[in-house]
Amino acid sequence: MSLIRPFRGLRPAPGQAGAVAAPPYDVLSSDEARSIVHGSAAGKPWSFLHISKPEIDLPREIDIYSPEVYAKAAENLQKMLAAGILARDAAPCYYAYRLTMGGHVQTGLVAAASVADYDSNRIRKHEFTRPDKEDDRVRQIEALNAQTGPVLLAYPASSTADDLIAAIAQGTPAADVIADDGIRHQIWVLADAARIAAITEAFDAMPALYIADGHHRSAAASRVAAARRGTESANAFLSVIFPHHQMKILDYNRVVRDLHGLEKSALVARLGTVFTVEDSPGPVHPARPGEFGMYLAGRWHKLSIKPELIPADPVASLDVSLLSDHLLAPILGIADLRRDKRIDFVGGVRGLAELEKRVDSGEMAVAFALHPTRMDQLMAVADSNNVMPPKSTWFEPKLADGLVSHVLD
Length: 409
What we know:
Layout: E1 4-5, E2 9-12, H1 17-20, H2 30-38, H3 49-52, H4 67-82, E3 86-88, E4 94-101, E5 104-114, H5 115-119, E6 123-124, H6 131-144, E7 146-147, E8 151-155, H7 159-168, E9 175-178, E10 184-190, H8 193-204, E11 209-213, H9 215-227, E12 236-243, E13 249-250, E14 252-256, H10 264-271, E15 275-280, E16 291-296, E17 299-305, H11 319-328, E18 343-347, H12 352-360, E19 366-369, H13 375-383, E20 394-395, E21 405-407
Parallel strand pairs: 6-11, 8-12
Antiparallel strand pairs: 1-5, 2-3, 2-21, 4-5, 4-10, 5-12, 7-21, 8-11, 9-10, 13-20, 14-18, 14-19, 15-17, 16-17, 16-19
Helix pairs in contact: 4-6, 6-9, 7-8
C-alpha cells in the first residue's frame, strides 16, 4: 500500500466539535480528567475523555488497566454514535488539521499511515516503548475497533505537499474549536478523488516520515495489524502529519531532589571542570545548544559546556545527553532517567517559574533549564536507527482527541 491513504473518518457531527474535543489522553491524570468532565453541575457528557479515559465514569479505586475500563470506553463510544454526536464519513477522505497557538500556526494532514512502512522503518522512530503502555493501547483499539489517539508525524519539508495541504484548509472548516488552554483546532475535509490522489502521490515520493509523538500508539497499531492479518483497515494507523519546519519543540527541563551528598559550593566547583559557570541576575533561557540554566539556592547560573566535550554522534551531542553524561550521572548520581525517583521532568510550556517553584518549595534541590531539541536533530537520530534519551522533546501545541478517529472495518 501507499505510505499514506485516505479513510472514512469518524468525526463530531456538525456543531458538536466543541463538546467532543478533548486533551490527549496521556497528558492528563485520571483525577484531572474527572475534574474536567464532572467538575461542574452541567458536566461534559460528550467529551471524548469518556472514551479516551473511561475510568472517569467508574469508581476511583478501579485499576485503569482492568477489562471494565476498556468495556466502558466501548459503551461510551456506542452511546455517542447512537445519539448522533459522532458520525462517520461516507467515503474515504483526507483532512487538513490546523493548530494555532498565539502567533504560531502549523497545518498538517490527517491520514491513515502504513503499518508496513512503520514495520520496515520508513516511518521512523526515536524512542523505546514500554510493554505495559503498548498493551494498554492494544486493548483500547480492540475494545473500540478504532484508533482514536492520532500519532503525531513529521514529513521532510516538501513544497508540493505543503501547497496541497494548504489548499484543503480554505473556506469554512468542518470543526473550529478553541480549547480550554487557548489552542485553536480547525479541521477541513477533502473528498475530491483527484486531489486525494495527488496528495497520496506526493507522500509516496518522500523517503521517510518521522514519529514525533505517539510511539506506543503506532507500536500498538502494528501489533493489532499482525493479529488481524488480512484486515485491510488494520494495516494503517491514525496520524496527523506536519511539515517538520512548522513543528514546535519546547524545552524539557529537569529538577533533582538532592545534591547527592554534595554541598552547594562543592557542586559548583565540580561543574567548573566541565562547564563555564556564570552567575545570572535572572532566569536563564538557554540561547543556544550547549548552554544550560541552573537554579540553585534561589539563584540562577548559566552553564556552557566546554566545546571539546561535544561529540559528533547524533545522540551523544543532544543537550539532554550532554547534561546526563557530564552532570546528572557523574556528579549527581542519576544514571537511569526512566527509573530514578530523584529526578523529575518539567515541560517548557510551564515556564521557568515552575522550576523556581519546585526548588523554592524545598521539594527539589536544583533545576536545570535546557535548550529545546531541534527537529533536524530528532530526524538525524531516527535516520541513524538510534533512540533519544527519555524526555527529550516536548511538542506544543498538542493535538486534540476526538476530532477525527479511524474505525477498523
